[in-house]
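In response to a reviewer's request, we include the raw inputs and outputs for one of the modeled complexes. The two entities were modeled together in a single run.
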Amino acid sequence: MATVKLSFSPAPVHVRTARLVGVAVARRAGVREDLLDEVRLAIGEACTRAVALHRQYGLSDPVLVEMSDSGAYAVRVVDRAPIEAGIGLAALPPDELAKESLSEDALTTGVGFALLAGFVEDLQVRPVEEGIGTEVRMVWPVGR
Amino acid sequence: MELSLATRTVGEHTVLEVGGEVDVYTAPRLRERLLELIDGGARRVVVDLGRVDFLDSTGLGVLVGALKRLRSAGGSFALVCDKEPLLKIFRITALDQVFPLHPTVDAAISADSTGAGA
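The model returned the following structure tokens for the whole complex.
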């Protein structure tokens, strides 16, 4: 089993780095080539969400991304924001999406969750076991 | 790859060609450019995503923002996209039912000119 951990200051510029590392480790772990675009997008969405929460709550704590390949490729993205903010899988119907009253932030959050749920079959969003925060856990099969 | 933005005019339409990665870091630049165009009087806007190789929820949010702004100004907004990975993103988020999506710039312009646009 190999584990790669990445911890980054909650700034948008670092999300790309997390995506690149996440895909590199996925490829190395044996995730099918045709799934890598989805891995890239999902890790990006999870990290974007974490960065947005840290900024919303004025937290300078780093966002943690942990990738491991024990049997499958598992990625955890951990934020440190208060729990009430973190869990809420809002799927927005199309007629809501174009509504004038829906803010761009709310739309982006809803769309981000739709992408996570749509691209990751094995997805969990849950409170962290210790301290404050939530973790987004995503698992992809490794094909041999 | 970094974000690239290039604007050209085709008749009444303003075509914004976007390339590279549109994500939480680069999307503000796309938002600014779209606002500049709309504030500058562009009312029929086509955004060509043909050279985009990454698009996330932040980028989608910016595109929806531009669509709403143009609609309320009596204008039109359409997207050009023929790459399956990107089209899948629009389907999963149901945004394929919100944006007029066309495979080419010509198709987007002719659909809008015949009144089938947004």
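As requested, we also summarize the result in words. The domain at 4-103 of chain B is CATH 3.30.750.24 (Transcription Regulator spoIIAA). The first strand of chain B starts at residue 4 and ends at 10.
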